[in-house]
UniProtKB/TrEMBL annotation:
PANTHER family: COPPER TRANSPORT PROTEIN, SOLUTE CARRIER FAMILY 31 COPPER TRANSPORTERS. InterPro entries: Cop_transporter (IPR007274). This is Copper transport protein. Coiled coil: none annotated. It comes from the Eukaryota. The keyword Ribosomal protein does not apply. Keywords: Copper, Copper transport, Ion transport, Membrane, Transmembrane, Transmembrane helix, Transport. GO terms for molecular function: copper ion transmembrane transporter activity. Belongs to the copper transporter (Ctr) (TC 1.A.56) family. SLC31A subfamily. It is found in: Membrane. It comes from Arion vulgaris. GO terms for cellular component: membrane. The chain crosses the membrane at residues 36-56, 103-123, 129-151.
């Protein structure tokens, strides 16, 4: 049809195959790239979001490592045992805090907030990729690659069990 205008949207339907062009809706109805310059700008924004996404995964790992190193404290660290306590009671009293106490820590709240942001960003990047616009897809792939190059070498694990869209 003649109204495709170099892009992916025509009569409200999406092209469900890889295509190039510059006229593309990027996540929101108000974010329509109508020129090559707008598409280049959108690609830069998406590129940096993909880099930030990789950085966020690294930040979550740092927060987790810090909370694990702080969370290994026992109930009786320097104090004396109560009078009449046996060695068996001492072992039982030095266990880790309860699940409720660990869930209500500041680091767990931070970890939860970072997780929600990571899930949101991963789905937004997935939706951008699902426009099937080659330029936007390349921006995501290159941004993820640069982000991994910057942050990935510092990570303790290569496989991320918290990954949502890989």
């Amino acid at each position: 049809h003649g109204s495709m205008d170099h892009g992916s949207m025509g009569h409200g339907s999406m092209q469900m195959f890889f295509h190039d062009g510059y006229s593309e809706y990027v996540l929101f109805e108000g974010c329509l790239t109508k020129s090559v310059g707008a598409m280049v700008g959108a690609c830069f924004v998406i590129f940096f979001l993909a880099v930030l996404y990789e950085g966020l995964k690294f930040l979550r790992e740092i927060v987790l490592q810090q909370s694990n190193s702080l969370g290994d404290k026992s109930v009786y660290t320097l104090g004396k045992l109560p009078t009449g306590s046996s060695q068996e009671q001492m072992v039982m009293e030095t266990r880790k805090p309860s699940i409720t106490n660990r869930m209500l820590t500041g680091s767990h709240f931070i970890q939860t907030l970072l997780h929600v942001i990571q899930v949101f960003m991963s789905y937004c990047l997935m939706l951008v990729f699902m426009t099937y616009n080659v330029w936007l897809c390349l921006a995501i792939i290159l941004g993820a690659g640069v982000g991994y190059f910057i942050f990935g070498w510092k990570r303790a694990t290569v496989v991320d069990s918290n990954e949502h869209c890989h």
